[in-house]
Hints:
Layout: E1 2-3, H1 15-30, E2 45-47, E3 50-56, E4 64-73, E5 78-85, E6 92-95, E7 102-106, E8 112-116, E9 119-124, E10 128-135, E11 143-152, E12 155-165, H2 175-187, E13 197-203, E14 209-215, E15 224-228, E16 234-235, E17 239-242, E18 248-253, E19 267-274, E20 277-284
Parallel strand pairs: 1-12
Antiparallel strand pairs: 2-3, 3-4, 4-10, 5-9, 5-11, 6-11, 7-10, 8-9, 11-12, 13-14, 14-18, 15-16, 15-19, 17-18, 19-20
Helix pairs in contact: 1-2
Amino acid sequence: MNFAMSCSNLSVISRGSRAWIVAAAIGLLSLLPATPSLAASSNWALNEGGRMRLILLPQEADGTRHGALVIEPKPGWITYWKEPGDVGIPPAITPAPGAAYTVERVGFPVPKILTNGDMTDVGYDHPVTLPITLKNAPDDTGVTLSAFVGVCQNICIPFQADLSVPPDTDGVANAVETALVRAAQAQVPPGPSPEFHVVDHQLGADHRELVVRLKMPAGADSPQAFVSGPSGHVFTHSVASRGTGGETVLTLPIGKLPKKYKIAGKHWGILVVSGNRAMETTLAFD
Length: 286
């Protein structure tokens, strides 16, 4: 692939059911006219490989404002997870220069491993909705966010757009938009739980192998792990084995790390997927 330019507990609703909810909400939204925009939505930004738009709900009592970035790659195109793999562009969502509001959080649903020849990407080959949380963005203030994503087919095309949502003087959420944002939030993997968590982790002294011990739900399928290390590094190949006390042990080969990389004090992310369950947390290294 070459560049044209260089929550809730997932046992309650399966990932398949959640994906259906998101798809249905996107379908309803896409039936509405592209212009003018809905009361709390931007217009669609268009690109050779797809389109995207911003949705915002009314401000919450605690001052936060929830919303979502809707990314719709065209059929045959893909877009990326927060760590994209061998080649790719991770999504970036930033406020307009000088804005008082901030982007506090961007959520990502469970991605896929996508292969193209000898290249491996991590992302989505279907429409994806990324839930976002803003602070200091009252309803009576217009919001502009710069969204920068990659969409790829045989080449990767950077897709940048300034997405503007006008002031919402009514403070009343559109039902379709609300359903889409809530469904997107439900797609984000939850953190650890007593029945599904990392027990221990150890990176070898030569930094060549990571061993992660997991407490898994009873009867869980063999897990798939996505480990995001230094920026631009994601590790997805793992071998599962049975440990003491019924734990699951994942062994991941670690590819080349940055020169003179020091692991002490670093934090890596890990997403573990098992059937219709998923869990996401952080690996801290002493």
